[in-house]
Every structure is written in structure tokens, then in C-alpha cells.
Amino acid sequence: MKILSEATRKNLETRNPTPHNIPAAPPLSNYMDLNIPLDPFPVGLSPMDDITDLPFRQLCKEFGASYLITEFIASEALNRDAEKSLRKMRFTDGQRPLGIQIFGADEDELLRCLEVVEKAEPDFIDINWGCPVRKVAGKGAGSGILQDIPKMLRITSALVRHTELPVTVKTRLAYSADTTPVTDFAEALQDCGIAALAIHGRTKSQMYSGQADWTMIGRVKANPRIHIPIFGNGDITTAAQAVEYKERYGVDGILVGRAAIGNPWIFEQCRRALEGLGEREVGIAERVEVCRRHLRMAVDFKGERTAVFEMRKHYGSYFKGIANFKPHRLALCAATSAADVEKILDGITDLKEPGTAW
């Protein structure tokens, strides 16, 4: 298993200075079997397709994310050298610790793609046994495999055996309410040799509806035979929840997903709350500047056309709570060039401050 050198750690600190007076992270330590430096209570970025690309990950890292995971990447696409999938694996040393997440339903394809992933030199490999969308789960990948637990365990074990990198798993509570729950197979996943397990508090059948149920996540963590880190995920939208769920369910860390869209500040706020500090209010000018920087990095990384289109997913959250923002949001989503977007952003700074901490 790969352990980051002291030189690499110092390099990370140099490339990622703590911004905006975020409380300094506690001393880094090897996180049990994961063998990567993490905070004592990590707050990581959950992988999201077409969201957690390199530019967005960079912002989340700068605002305090403990670790990052790429968008999920199809094993078959990696084996075909598909350009878009290879681009999803790109990252900088300043984004470490970082995991590359892969998905698929075919054991041979997943094993073949390991060589491609290892060449990118991530800190760990994450297996996606949790995505509920039809195009993934419908083919038996993602959370679709939760209908065949023996197959999931067989593939997981094979991947662990065939790489020297730490392997982690992200999954859901179950396929549906009447199928095998994670409390019944978490130990078996651990026995496969995985280094950590992240659990989203919904079943596959729930998709993203209803409220995430952390009770079962807490039961997995409370199992005295579980010794790997257990991370919780689902409906973490405020820093106060990060503290509450840490104390109530005893998890070793959390992953923030949709609440980070257009809101990289959530990692800073979680860090502050865990340190017992109050929230720092994020004003309109700062939101505009970070959104502008996000756009420019996306243009550099993906090209203007793709960047302008994909940034539309972020605008509503970047400026949430600002009075009379709707006309600006519609204009941003209608813009077809980066120059037009920047002109609209220039006009947002004149709007009324929301008057509440982010």
C-alpha cells in the first residue's frame, strides 16, 4: 500500500494554504488501513457525475475538504482509452489525498482497468457499489449489484487482490427495503480487504427521494467486529449536521455530496464547526469571485462550450438566498459564452446581501 512521503505532505501544504482563516487541520496521521493522511474526522467530497471534475475538486480542497474522489468512471471506457473517461482521472498533487472511483458489472473489465487507474497514481481506488441511476444500476453496476451480494463480494475481493493501492467501497443501505441490508454484508466487505466503507443512507429504490436514514449506518459502525473506517453520506447540508451526526452515529468521517454544488464553503464551515467555531459569513462579492474562478478553470480544463453548459448546474447554489436573483440566474443559464457569463457576474455584486451565514 502506498504511503505519502513527508516531502509530499509538505508539498500539499505549500500548494494548498489554508484560505479565509479556516482553522488549521489537526496533525496528519495514517488513517488506519487506508494509509493516507487525513484529519481525525475527515469531511470528504462525495463523487458526483459531471460535478466533481478537476476544477470543482480544486475549489473544495482549498475550502477545506479532507479528501476528494473523482467522478465515477466506467471500467469499459477506461479499457477503450475513451478520452472523456481518461480526463476524469486527471488531478493535481495539490488535490491529494484523492481516490479514483470506478464502476462496472463485469469482473474481467474491472480487473483490466486497474492498470490504467494505477498509472494515474491516485492515493486509493474507490469502487462504486452505490449509484442508483438506471443507466448504471440497470446493468448490474453501482447499486444494481446489491441484488447479487455474492457477486459484489467476489469482485471486490478480486480487485483488492490485484492492486497494491488501498481499495475503498461506497454503497447504499440495500437495493430495496426487502433485500439484504448493509448491516448484513458490511463485515463481508471488510473481509474482502477493503480499507474503508462509505454508506449512503438510502436504498437503491429510493434514489434521492425522502430523507437519508443514518440509523443503519450507525449500526454498522457500532458492530464490534468492524475495524475499518465507516463514512456516512446523505443529506449533510449544514456544518451543524456534521457535528451532530459525528456524535450521534459515531462515524469516522462524512462525505458531502449535493450540498457542495455551488457551495465549496461547506467544507470550511464543517471544519469550523468541528473546531467549535462559528460560521463565517460569505458575502456576494466572494461568491461572485469564486464562481468566476470556477468558470475560468472549467474553460481551461474542458473548453468553453462544455464549461459554460456544465456550470449552469452550479449558479443557483452559488447565489442561494440572494434577493431578486432569478433574472440573473436565467441570464446565466442562457449565456452561451464565458464572456457573457462574466458580464452577468459583474452585475450580481450590486444585489442585496442575504444577511445570513452560508
Order of helices and strands: HEEEHEEHHEHEHHEHEHEHEHHHHHH
Largest sheet: 9 strands, parallel
The helicity comes to: 40-55%
The SS-based structural class is alpha/beta
For this structure, the CATH topology of the largest domain is: TIM Barrel
Please count the helical segments.
16
* Domain unit count: 2
Q: Which range does the strand content fall in?
A: 5-15%
Oligomer: single chain
CATH class of the largest domain: Alpha Beta
For the CA atoms, what is the radius of gyration?
A: 20 Å
Average of per-residue pLDDT values: 89
CATH architecture designation of the largest domain = Alpha-Beta Barrel
- Fourth CATH level, the homologous superfamily of the largest domain: Aldolase class I
Written description of the protein model:
The chain has 358 residues and is α/β, with parallel strands linked by helices. It folds into two domains: 6-274, Alpha-Beta Barrel (TIM Barrel), CATH 3.20.20.70; 284-348, Non-ribosomal Peptide Synthetase Peptidyl Carrier Protein, Chain A, CATH 1.10.1200. The protein has helices spanning 6-15, 54-62, 75-79, 83-88, 107-119, 134-137, 149-161, 182-191, 215-222, 239-249, 265-274, 284-302, 304-310, 315-318, 326-334, 338-348; strands spanning 29-30, 37-38, 43-45, 68-69, 73-74, 98-103, 124-129, 167-172, 196-200, 230-233, 253-256. Strands 3, 4, 5, 6, 7, 8, 9, 10 and 11 form a nine-stranded parallel sheet that branches. The chain has a two-stranded antiparallel ribbon with strand order 1-2. The chain is globular and about 55 Å long. Mean pLDDT is 89; it is low at 1-30.
